[in-house]
Write a structure and sequence with these properties.
Strand order of the largest sheet of chain A: 5-12-11-10-9-6-7-8
Structural class of chain A: alpha/beta
Oligomer: homodimer
Radius of gyration of chain A: 31 Å
Helix content of chain A: 25-40%
Distance between the termini of chain A: 88 Å
Number of strands of chain A: 17
Largest interface: A-B, 115 and 116 residues
Number of helices of chain A: 16
Strand content of chain A: 5-15%
Shape of chain A: elongated
């Protein structure tokens, strides 16, 4: 039997490992018939000029793993107890290796789109980013809070001690926070902590939608919600958004779930007036549909008092509320929450457990302290002032540089506003030439989008840069 | 119009807020007909003995939010522009408030069980816990690594900078780690970071199973996988586990996904021999089924060399590999990973994005350093020695105290083993009387379980405590 192994004394892998690896590859590659006798350790050691101990170590492993068979008194053989098909080439990629069979994917998979990624050049000013200003987050403070829990190393945080629905302290802190800021009255047990608002929507889709059910979405609206419902097999019903929010007339008796962003509609930024909120709640009650209130950026309000959450208007009946800390803290923090009616606590807890057991507890514990010690409120107050100044700069520049043809919406709250320019094509061309990343709202429409509507995310950009970008967009003649 | 508001000067809420709150509650409670005139700010202020400015602030908010309507020259009214049904009681819980309609849940929800929670008394010794020893994890070191990234506050970690499939450095570190420890050759792009192995299984169920498809599971087996597949609508096929692993004869031509734990079968602890691995791979190839290799605790092996991962045997064709850091680090760390064939990278990335955007990056970045700087390998080596000593104590005590009738399985690896006692009833009674938490494997069977089989999780318990617990279980006469 010829054993053409290539041992390399200079390699990092020890020789016994090389011998093992190469025998294994050769057997899996079908180079030996089963039952074939292999050289004795003595013969092999002599042939390759290595110590017999080294060879014995490799052989023992090959025997232990079933590649070799040692028969007492007669030597060592390629295992014959392997099943019939074993010795066909399967383990080692080679020319003879057939292409792997295509794996059949589920219908869920076929309904998933790919992941869209915006490529932002490093030198561009990105007006399309709806994001808080990361540079203003108090990381030293956050580090202290996280470190505190790392120092304690409490099993409540580092073992599976906590409930799937979240860290108890955080659930209580969230309940108190939204009672203060959103007039939502709920017990901590109704708060289900999740890994960001996307997971909140996913759990809702699992628990509240069957394939073929109808989910109503705002038009334009948040693609992350719409794609998710579609992936779960729901059919989508578009609710056109006007200045008074999404149209309720568009709903049908088949609609089972209504996803809305009433505080600051995404992307238009309009706020749903009280009358529309009540009308929608009433519609949902009559049709036994669930309202999914996605309150993704209610914390920044610049003009007028915040409207009460739909959840609080309905005292929670038939409403599932979704909140997130991504927009008030930083987007890499994957912590969001649901507030669910009592009757759904069990189902949401079980669904969360099934999805990923629980959200990372270290950051949950730190966030509980961040809220309880007043840091969150302080940070929001500071950022509200900062973002309002930035918003004002945008409004001032839009008014001054583009004239009366410009229509601004959604500037009363949030991290972005939308704007319609009279000559959209010229704006787009100028943005591209001058390295300004500008996003049309076209992405957010299921149907035909308006041609000239853009998002301006102002929160993460300094005033000077905002001025430069908007002046530059306005063109040379000013 | 009578306005019986109860203002409380001692309350924390400012008076204008109290006025606003109570008007709002009264209107939502249906106490006023729409269009009804409300007292002027002057009259209200006089009636309640508060400043007119206070009342004006409250009224302005009520007008802004649409509860009140100010008609120039004629006064203020309960809004008449609210829709017809508005003034029915909806917002304020009261006796007149009808019970909320029951929310109709999805079929997914109906297939979810509740969350089982084991109640462990604080004074008991918990032999049922399959867990690493949290007290031996180097938290000071981990704190340093986490702090390092908190100090840098890099947008790669705190913004959505990273790809949904995970932190680039971590994906590369994992690929290198499993090449070293599991002989798995894959590119970092094939590694999809997820929030623990449960999420890995969930993504597989979404992408690889349609409702009605058949998923094969080990019998006994891991309930977290089985419940998950069932919740996704799959029908389960049980593969009885013998000493040579799960039986392949049990599979049918309808089986689309086969979930196995070949390194250290859960819960029996048996290791699937090479022949069975190859046979299963061959079966899956012939039937175009996917093998889901759940390698939840391969890192601790005490006897014999580790067998190659099925993924490496098949060079990844038709195999999805699942790994986790919960058992080598600590269970609160919600980081696991999938290794998927090239053709599935896109689908898994999209599914992960849809599920929760990405796993928390702070801990991903720290974990990348933990692996790259050699801490993980060192920790595993240390824990392997420690757990082996603890395992040896269990084996010694079982042999000495219970005699030859005891059958031990699964002691070659992992954090637990299983044991069959000859007189199970007596053991259970003694465990309960002496405060020892002992779990039968009955939970892990779909069919009829053996009566006398127990799990002993030894890794998180000190030698002295193990000795005390097992001696105590063995009864008074020793």
């Amino acid at each position: 039997m010829e054993v053409p192994l290539a041992l390399d004394r200079a390699a990092a892998a020890p020789l016994h490992r090389q011998i093992y690896d190469q025998w294994r590859a050769a057997i899996l590659g079908g180079r030996f018939r089963r039952g074939a006798r292999v050289p004795s350790t003595r013969a092999f050691a002599a042939a390759y000029g290595v110590s017999r101990l080294t060879v014995t170590a490799a052989y023992e492993q090959l025997v232990a793993e079933g590649y070799f068979e040692a028969r007492r008194g007669s030597g060592t053989f390629v295992s014959s107890e392997l099943p019939d098909e074993t010795l066909r080439p399967i383990g080692v990629p080679s020319a003879a290796h057939a292409a792997p069979p295509r794996i059949r994917l589920s219908r869920y998979a076929s309904r998933l789109g790919g992941v869209r990624r915006l490529v932002v050049s490093a030198r561009s000013i990105n007006l399309s980013k709806v994001s808080p200003d990361l540079t203003r987050f108090p990381f030293p403070l956050w580090r202290r809070l996280v470190s505190r829990h790392l120092r304690r190393a409490s099993p409540d945080v580092f073992d599976h001690g906590a409930q799937p629905a979240g860290h108890q302290g955080l659930r209580a802190a969230i309940a108190a926070h939204i009672a203060r800021t959103r007039a939502i009255r709920c017990s901590p047990s109704q708060v289900i902590v999740v890994s960001g608002s996307q997971q909140a929507l996913d759990l809702c889709a699992r628990l509240l939608l069957d394939p073929g059910d109808e989910a109503a979405v705002e038009e334009p609206g948040y693609p992350g919600a719409r794609q998710l419902f579609a992936a779960h097999g729901a059919s989508l019903r578009a609710m056109p958004v006007g200045d008074a929010g999404p149209s309720i007339d568009a709903l049908s008796h088949r609609t089972r779930l209504v996803h809305v962003t009433p505080s600051h509609q995404f992307p238009t930024g309009v706020s749903m007036p009280l009358a529309r909120r009540l009308e929608l709640l009433d519609w949902a009650r009559t049709h036994a549909a669930v309202v999914l209130e996605d309150d993704y950026d209610s914390d920044y309000r610049y003009s007028g008092p915040p409207l009460p959450a739909m959840y609080s208007l309905a005292s929670g009946a038939g409403v599932v509320y979704v909140g997130t800390f991504s927009n008030v803290m930083f987007r890499g923090l994957r912590i969001g929450y649901l507030v669910v009616p009592d009757e759904l606590i069990g189902a949401f807890t079980a669904a969360k457990w099934m999805a990923d057991r629980h959200t990372t507890l270290l950051e949950q514990a730190a966030l509980a302290d961040f809220i309880d010690e007043g840091h969150l409120d302080r940070h929001i107050r500071r950022m509200r002032r900062l973002y309002q100044r930035r918003r004002d700069v945008v409004l001032e520049l839009l008014g001054r540089s583009f004239g009366p043809g410009v229509v601004v919406r959604g500037d009363a709250a949030g991290l972005h506003l939308t704007v319609r320019f009279p000559r959209a094509a010229a704006i787009s061309v100028r943005a591209e030439r001058r390295g300004i990343q500008l996003s049309s709202t076209a992405l957010y429409y299921l149907g035909r989008p308006p041609r000239s509507e853009f998002i301006i995310g102002f929160a993460a950009i300094g005033e000077r840069t905002l001025r430069a970008a908007l002046s530059s967009l306005a063109g040379p003649a000013r």
